[in-house]
Fold these 4 entries.
Entry 1:
Amino acid sequence: MGISFDRAFGLQESAVNTRIRRAEILASNLANADTPGFKARDLDFQAVLNGVAESSLSVARTHPAHLQTTVSAEPGLRYRNPTQPSIDGNTVDTQAELVEFSRNALEYQASFRFLNDSMTGLSKAIKGE
């Protein structure tokens, strides 16, 4: 019986990929800090890894003439509640976004190091070291 990467590394690969996706979302928030009406978003890391969020939402038909459809949603992606929204409707708090971006970068490094250490250990085990 072979060793699968899923069994060897568990959620570590998903954690690294989720941290990368969160960095993209936070960078988008920062890039749109001056865009009127832009709504800041964030990725709920725990919800993504737990698989709590659904990948699509069903839209209820209230009339037979309405089209049946689903709305695609990224699991764990949420709008951020602003502490003080601006007059133009933008909800990006640059300072809070920078803090979250820095925190995510540190957590990414930790996740990546953990994954790298696991791979190194597996490599040594295969080599018989």
Entry 2:
Amino acid sequence: MTDEEIVKKIQQGQYLLYTEILKRYEKKIYYYIRRITSWDQLSIEDMTQDTFIKTYRNLQSFDTSKKFSSWIYRIGHNVAVDFLKSQKRPSVSLDGLEEVLVSKQLLVEDMAILESDKQKLAKMIEMLPVKYKEVIVLYYMEEKTYDEIGEILRIPISTVGVLLLRARQKLKQFYEKK
């Protein structure tokens, strides 16, 4: 059963099916929030829980003709951003990002990254503005499409492409300076 079919049944009163949504997305949302914040595990768990509470509360308003994963990631994004604003600590955790980027050969081609430079890449990504880090995390780590990233961040698809291009260009500049 698709996510959208499950949500439709929940909207029709089969509330126990929400546990299936939890099973499918708990780890994904947790790791997404962890990657875009650098808070302690307890705070990340709280943000994840808050995401699922808000998702459940607003499930009746979800349009089942749209993609559920983009919708729940958007809620997780908003929860994390709200938390970061309230705590005044804007930082991003790049746990494992350098391996994903290098293994996918997407930045490797642009920068000829050597195995020994993976840590440098993580530090360079940390230097990027948040708008670039978000698209890097969503595209490379969460493997979201441009459409999905656009929905999550509420930006046009063309802007997603521009942000990814600029992020890669900035990383290349950082790399060449080092």
Entry 3:
Amino acid sequence: MNHEQLASYLRSQRRRAGLSQRELSLLLGYADDGQVSRHERLGTVPHLLTALSYQAIFCVAISEIFPGFYDAVKQGIEERLAKMEEELQGSTAKGRKAAAIARKLEWLWERRNPDQSDFIHAS
């Protein structure tokens, strides 16, 4: 999805609901519609509470309203998790530290394999 498609997604949600930028601004608690305009153009990233407000208004997940932002955040998280896992796997800790590392590695594995994690906990 290109920048223009991402920018138009919030706008299409607003228009689908039949709301003007002014009306959406009022629902969000803004005094003017400038902030909504900037969000629609992806000129600014909405604060978490504002993003949650969009989700509550449109009953659509934040990740669907702002897919480009979500994808960028997710990619960064995945890269940092991969680095963490590599460091944990290379650890030679003993005792309690080893148990904590094992717990983290198990969580990382379950995160990647959600369908199989139920099987692990059932046995």
Entry 4:
Amino acid sequence: MAVIVAAIVNMVLGYVWYGPLFGKQWMALSGVMPQLDALGKPKGMTKKMVIMFVGALVMAVTLFKFIAYASGFLQQSGAALGLSIGFCLWLGFIAPVTLSVVLWEGKSWKLWFLNNAYYVVLLLVNGAILASWK
């Protein structure tokens, strides 16, 4: 159940982050313009949301496994452990891998910071949820 909740939180946070909070800024920085259908609605949104939800589930399961392993190894539990693991995974994997967007794709550092702020917040929140769930 915790994994499903974390995946739902992932989707909600993504909607808020890339919608009302930073949507216009993200579109300008990334050069993405939504493709609309005849009714003015984004094309293929249902398919994209389903794929993203599957990705959110995979991320939540993987994060849960990292927390479980760390819990046994460190003999710790709770939200603090989840926050620590979430931050370490962001710092060790997400932050360096996403540097390619700036270095090789020519995107701005502002876009890197915007996207990485989302990922670190997401991993912190999901880490806390998954590590605290009983």
